[in-house]
Specification:
The chain is an alpha+beta fold and 149 residues long. The protein has a single domain, classed as Hotdog Thioesterase (Thiol Ester Dehydrase, Chain A, Roll). The chain is 20% helix and 45% strand. It has a seven-stranded antiparallel β-sheet with strand order 1-2-3-5-6-7-4. Strand 5 and strand 6 form a beta hairpin. The longest helix has 19 residues.
């Protein structure tokens, strides 16, 4: 059986706060392996007013950020609390990021993410973003767990 996390549970795992906490829930969690994150892209999302007025689009860098947040939540959820307590997850690299279709407000962006491998404190992930079954973006990225100063 797969687990899920709501926004309040995600807040307990991640240091991100509004408006930068992008993921609303994490579903279908397979411990330290995969999950689906939900990002509710709303008409009042913080980036809508300026990107782009009259024709708002979720910036590609925020889709990548949401991938990273989903991966950090998946990893923190699967690790012993002492491993991630007082730690931060930093993005190290983004590879093969492709933005196939614009993500526009009033949609549910589904991020299917998977941990490809881990070596010590460095993790590599891949993900695909969908709206209504249509692929919007995909990427691979690496992140590391570091001590909070």
């Amino acid at each position: 059986m797969s687990a899920s996390l709501n926004k309040d549970e995600i807040i307990k795992l991640l240091p991100h706060r509004e408006p930068m906490l992008l993921i609303d829930s994490l579903l279908n969690i397979k411990k330290l392996f995969s999950a689906t994150a939900i990002v509710n892209v709303r008409k009042d999302s913080f980036f809508v007013q300026g990107h782009f007025p009259g024709q708002p689009v979720m910036p590609g860098v925020l889709i990548v950020e949401a991938f990273g947040q989903a991966a950090a939540a998946l990893t923190a959820h699967g690790l012993d609390k002492s491993t991630y307590e007082n730690k931060l997850v930093f993005l190290m690299s983004v590879e093969k990021a492709r933005f196939r279709n614009p993500v526009v407000p009033d949609c549910k962006l589904e991020l299917n993410i998977e941990a490809i491998r881990s070596h010590g404190k460095v993790w590599k992930y891949k993900g695909e973003a969908y709206v209504d079954g249509k692929k919007m973006a995909d990427a691979q990225w690496s992140a590391t767990i570091v001590d909070r100063k």
